[in-house]
User: Fold ATP-cone domain-containing protein from Candidatus Collierbacteria bacterium CG1_02_44_10.
Amino acid sequence: MSAQIRVMNAAGEYEPYEEEKVRSSLARAEADGVFQDRIVEHLRTKLYDGIPTKVVYKEILHLLKKLKSSLASRYHLKQAIMELGPTGFPFEKYFAGVLESYGYKTVTNDYIRGKCVTHEIDIVAWKEDCHVAAAPRNDIAALGMTSSKIMIECKFHHEPGVRSDIKDGLYTYARFLDIKENGFDEIWLVTNTKATSELVAYGNCAGLKVISWNYPEDFSLRLLVSQKKLHPITVLNSLSSVDKQILLANNIVFCYELLNPKVNCLPKDALIKAQNEARLVIGTN
Assistant:
C-alpha cells in the first residue's frame, strides 16, 4: 500500500510515502524497533493518497506522547527550533551556542564597518584553538588569530515549507565581499529549514558554505544538534508557551541550561517538571 500512497510536503509538492523515511526519523529520535513498528502500523490505518506530511507528523507525535514523552520531545526537534521566536534573534544565539559546543568562539549581532557601509553580522565565529589577542567586542577585526574567521548569516523561518533560496545567497555573499578586508576568510549561510538546489549550487561555486536542516549530510543543523543533545527548551512538552518565552527572555535556550541550579525564573513546580523532562530528552541523570 505504501508504494501507492503519495504525501504532500510542506512546499505543496507530492512525493511517494516511504515507511523507511518514517523509521529513519523515529530512529533519530532514539525510538527502537518496537516503537517504530507500532508507529508504522498505526500510520497504515490513517494514510490516504495526498495526505499532508503535517498530518502524518501530528499522528506520529500524538502517539509518541502516549507511548513515551521523551521520544515525542526529541521527534519535535525541527518544529521546536521554529518556535524559538518570530524575529529569528533567538535562533542566532541558539546556533552560536551550537557552534561553541563544537569548539568555536562566537560573537553575535556585531556591527562591522565594511568598505562601503556598516553591517550587522549575525555571528562571527572562529575556532577555539586560535591564538586570540584580547580585543573589545566592537573591534572583532582587531582579533589576532591563526585560523579562519567566519561571517555567518542566519536565515530563520517559522514555517516548514519556506526555503532559503538564491536571493539569500546573493545577499549574504555581497555583504561578505564588503567586509572581507576586515580579516574574514569564510562565509556561511545557515537556515533552520531547507535550502533550494539553486542556492546549494551557487554556494558550491562561490565558496559560500550553506548549512540547512538536512544539508550537508556531515554538517547539517539536524546532525550538529542531535550529536551533542543540543535540544532547545522549546522541545519540552511540559512547558507552556508562556514559560518558554520567559526562559528565552532569560537567555535560557538549551535544555542543558535549564538544569543549572541557578535557574529560578519559573514557579518551582513547573521548573522541576521541565527539568525532569529535560534530563530524559538529553539523557542526563
Notes: The chain has three domains: 2-75, 89-224, 231-282. Residues 218 and 285 are 29 Å apart (CA to CA).
